[in-house]
Amino acid sequence: MSTTPIADRRTTSVAARATDLSKIYGQGETQVVALDRVTVEFRQAEFTAIMGPSGSGKSTLMHCVAGLDTFSSGSVRIGETELGSLKDRQLTKLRRDKIGFIFQAFNLLPTLTALENITLPMDIAGRKPDKQWLDSVIQMVGLKDRLSHRPSQLSGGQQQRVAVARALASRPEIIFGDEPTGNLDSRSGAEVLGFLRNSVRELGQTVVMVTHDPVAASYADRVVFLADGRIVDEMYRPTAETVLDFMKQFDAKGRTS
Ligand SMILES: Nc1ncnc2c1ncn2[C@@H]1O[C@H](COP(=O)(O)OP(=O)(O)O)[C@@H](O)[C@H]1O
Ligand SMILES: [Mg+2]
Questions:
Q1: Ligand nearest to the CA of 53
Q2: Whose CA is nearest to atom 7 of ligand 1?
Q3: Which residues surround the ion ligand 2 when the cut-off is CB under 5 Å?
Q4: What is the pLDDT of residues 147-183, one digit of tens each?
Q5: Fewer C-beta within 10 Å: the chain N or C terminus?
């Protein structure tokens, strides 16, 4: 486990940044401001959890920063690249080459084996996986003896481990997860969260995860809290207790305001 103090890690480079990011759905009376001038940085080799009530804009923020959705105004950078300046094809390429995704619903291809699923994004990109790296990723997520299984032959936890390995395999600049443990029992969820944390500590991976679960958030280095499309607070070195306390206090504030 890294002993680098968080204060030092804060001086490292920024993997992704949103500046004054707004996202408005619809128009007129049906208009919804999903993101309201959000500015946030995700630093390299840091594990960030995004939390907030349902409808606060967590998924929208993740999708806009990951180049999965367009935004209304503001800017987003992945590394040195401004997403707003990219054409569709360039954006697709950036997503494929620089970003890893883990979704709540695993999103594996049922006809492919675990190994084929893990290397699929690189196969599509025509890139050869780094064999040593791939082996270490597979080792880390404990899938060595499941590689020829198809998703239907794997438990939910194992399927999500395949998805984690798939996200890590191409050494992306940043991995985004939207409720990656939302469909898992607590033990499998803890495993997946442990792997994500290890990938940050041991492999220097950058991870941003949306979650509503204080226990899941406690695996992160930092929690960013959203409400009504705005960032309202952040917390370093979260524990399940401190996150839960914050959320209770926040709920109470919400009711009185
Ligand atoms: N495709 C859409 N069309 C209209 N409104 C949307 C759409 N997607 C999300 N929203 C609205 O934007 C707000 C933020 O949604 P979302 O980012 O999914 O929140 P969260 O992930 O925190 O639950 C909500 O009010 C939601 O209803
Ligand atoms: Mg959501």
A1: 1
A2: 25
A3: 58-59
A4: 999 999 999 999 999 999 999 998 899 999 999 999 8
A5: C
First-to-last alpha carbon distance for the chain, in angstroms, is 42
Query: 40 - beta bridge partners?
Result: 18
User: Is 100 within 8 Å of 16 (Cβ atoms)?
Assistant: no
Lowest mean pLDDT among 16-20, 21-25, 180-184, 227-231: 180-184
Domains delineated in the chain = 9-252 (3.40.50.300)
> Two tokens at 158?
């194992």
**What's the chain's average pLDDT?**
91
Q: Put residue 116 in one of left, alpha, beta given phi > 0 → left and psi -120 to 50 → alpha.
A: alpha
Residue percentage of the chain with pLDDT more than 90: 76
Question: Is the whole model's pTM more than 0.85, yes or no?
Answer: yes
Amino acid occupying residue 154: L
CA-57 nearest atom, ligand 1: 17
Largest interatomic CA distance in the chain: 56
Pure H helices in the chain = 6-9, 58-65, 88-98, 114-125, 131-140, 156-169, 186-203, 214-217, 240-256
What backbone phi and psi angles, to 5 degrees, belong to 113?
-75, 170
pLDDT by residue (tens digit) across 116-130? 999 998 998 888 888
The distance from CA 143 to its chain's CA centroid, rounded to whole angstroms, is 21
Q: What is the pLDDT of residue 125?
A: 85
Q: In what order do the strands lie in the sheet with 230-236?
A: 99-103, 174-178, 207-210, 47-51, 222-227, 230-236
CA-to-CA distance for 110 and 87, rounded, in angstroms?
Answer: 31
